[in-house]
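Human: If only I could read backbone structure tokens as easily as an amino acid sequence. Underneath my words sits a plain record pairing an amino acid chain with its backbone structure tokens. Take your time, and here it is.
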Amino acid sequence: MMRGLSKVYHRFSFFSLSPLTLTPPLFLSLNLNSFSSPRAAGHLRTQSSRPFKTVTTMTADRLHHLVPVNSVAAENGGEANSSLSSSSDSNYTEDEESLGGKYRLPPPEIKDIVDAPPLPALAFSPHRDKILFLKRRALPPLAELARPEEKLAGIRIDGRCNTRSRMSFYTGIGIHQLLPDGTLGPELEVHGFPAGAKINFVNWSNDGQHLAFSVRVGEEDNSGKLRVWVADVQTGKARPLFQSPDIYLNAVFDNFVWLDNSTILVSTIPSSRGDLPKKPLVPSGPKIQSNEQKHVVQVRTFQDLLKDEYDEDLFDYYTTTQLLLASLDGTVKEFGPPAVYTSLDPSPDRKYIMLTSVHRPYSFIVPCGRFPKKVDVWTTDGKFVRELCDLPLAEDIPIVFNSVRKGMRSISWRADKPSILYWVETQDGGDARVAVTPRDIIYTQHVEPLEGEEPEILHKLDLRYGGISWCDDSLALVYESWFKTRQTRTWVISPGYKDVTPRILFDRSSEDVYSDPGSPMLRRTPTGNYVIAKIKKGNDESTCVLLNGSGATPEGNIPFLDLFDINTGSKERIWESDKEKYYETTIALMSDQTEGDLYLNQLKILTSKESKTENTQYYIQSWPDKKSCQITNFPHPYPQLASLQKEMIRYQRKDGVQLTATLYLPPCYDPSKDGPLPCLFWSYPGEFKSKDAAGQVRGSPNEFAGIGSTSPLLWLARRFAILSGPTIPIIGEGTEEANDRYVEQLVASAEAAVEEVVRRGVAHPGKIAVGGHSYGAFMTANLLAHAPHLFSCGVARSGAYNRTLTPFGFQNEDRTLWEATSTYVEMSPFMSADKIKKPILLIHGEEDNNAGTLTMQSDRFFNALKGHGGQCRLVVLPFESHGYAARESIMHVLWETDRWLQKFCASNTSDVSADVEDSKDNIIIMIELLIFGRWRAEVGTATVNGWMSLPQHHKWYPL
């Protein structure tokens, strides 16, 4: 057999297939000795699940832009983190392929993009006359993530700072005056706080004269805790709010809120708080949970839950707050008793404040959002008014979508009134499986009702309540929806007129983006709340609002602004995005700082504008001439990719469903000269109730190609084609559940996408990798298991692979494992680990906190793959959560991914090699064909013994 193999190898020179190289080690790795005896010449298997692929010739110059991983230059000794290293070795050693090793750096062309300084965030003043530029830093070092944290009741707490752990922050604040001509004045830098301060929670006073924010300096002992500072906007001078240096912010939940232009209510660490609770060396007893009452309690796979009494004590220690009322003149007084306050919500007239808190008994099976909850109302000068509700522990909310907590929920203030409360109460016991009408009732009541005064019914809903947009007594919009049917309704009500019958304004499918009429634009009131903006058009007395829509069309999104008459339903398009080159969106009203009616001919709006290659900039559009004035001039964040190519492509699945994807190609790439490229396919499946909705186009071909720190678009710099977000619709029409045909629809969608990029000649059929994050990682593993003919390798980040470990639902699946056993099993790539023969790179954060994607999902999947001889690699990132944050981690993820793609995708020397490993018959056929000389290559096709292969399909058909 080895002698025959040698003959096969040497015959390649006769057929002149260079520069294709198929060396003996490649064939030896197929373990041909274990195959059965060769079949007679000409015996072809055409229905193989892994069809034999034609060897496509490629000229050497098609690869001249590909830079191997070993081209990374050694970093200078002055690199910010010496634990990061890069390799100049031209070959990967066994040590490098082991699970150990140091943090590494990706190639410079990727690293430089990730290290580019981030652009600032913007925040407008209440009167729209000033803009804050909130300055940010690049990626944080791993040392910040390595700080100790407490995982309690579904949240993670930095004990030293007494705030949520892993908080990002601003490094500085710049104030710019917005001049009358629309340009920006010179920057006034907020100053006075210590060098190196970390800034959070920046908040304008209602009159726009002051800023409040938290400052954290150092992270040793008490200096790492947060203090509240205030700054004068006219001078930029900042100072601490509290004169005492021993008052610290407790920012685990809500932090502080302006009550008026000179008074702030602050959540602080109680001065009476003692030492940290000590964990007993010997427990007082066993850990016991009981359900002797036979209650039905089903919960999803939540993480970071309380485990015992010690955790309960820790939770109380870190979250208990003493509210302080602080004035800019230095006056301070306590406000209410210490409690675990989760929300501070002042009334529009700033005379009352609604305080929400949680209390014991706590739970070991649900996060703190379901703990017993108490809602009280106080006056803003510190007098208790009333208790609105005290809800019990909610462990038994059904897992079915649209199920909710019993009792009062969504308690809030009417934005258009001084101090009117409203809330919702379910009529189905919170269980979406119960058929009842009405399903939800909205109630309203004055904050201090007269004795015996009952709440008024504002509106009744047959679907689940989804929010209210307030305007005035004559107009409010109420939203309701139902997940199972994707139905959504918008009601018009007149809250101040009981004799006006509510009516449905819009009734549509939430999946039907083409019919989306848009959302009403809001204006800021003098009290700082937001209500629907009514627009007058000359002397016309009609009630018009502005509907801001994404403008989904078959050609992509074309955002718009419509002047909509609430009473007649007529509309006039007053603004629309440039559809040829740019993508523009409406951000906010800029002419809402005065009281009274807003007139169309005085309208000003803030818009953004971008193109495929031009970074997002902001503009002010003014009526009546619609003059546009640019107010920012941000540089291109990665000029080396400024001329990248982007196209939104459309194609069809075999069942007729229309699909879309965004195809990115490297700068200066010409398919006619450069030939097909290695391609990275990166996606995330979605669920739909109809084929028509699944086939609708979402997104715009003119949007700027934003590249995040772990974006697949980084590989444009490595001369890859990127197929970003190809739609993977999992459709369950009518009573059918989408996931019951998950694998079938997943594979069909991927086949259609791969065939399209190969047909276009931009992707090499043997060099297509698949990847995804979270549910996209789940997709990746399933595609390698069930569609190995499509991809050369896979990259799966932070995924879940065994659905029996999430038995009470996952993603949009709300049936339990016991209700849909076959679906759970068939969807789990863990159960198909023996079928995965293509190389797969698994990456996971060691501290993943996402429900369902426990780190052990990747651990167990890797062991299953390894147990079947699968080619796999597992990278677990210390201290990282579901998403990755530290520079060292992100750079290493990019290095691992680039190494994997170069080794198993870009360097894949044959588009047959990806499939022959699993197909004994195909290997034998290839050997026979080469021995007997029955091979003929033609442009566009290859014929073998009377059979023809079409490159776009890579299957064999009789001539």
Observations:
- DSSP finds 15 helices and 54 strands in the chain.
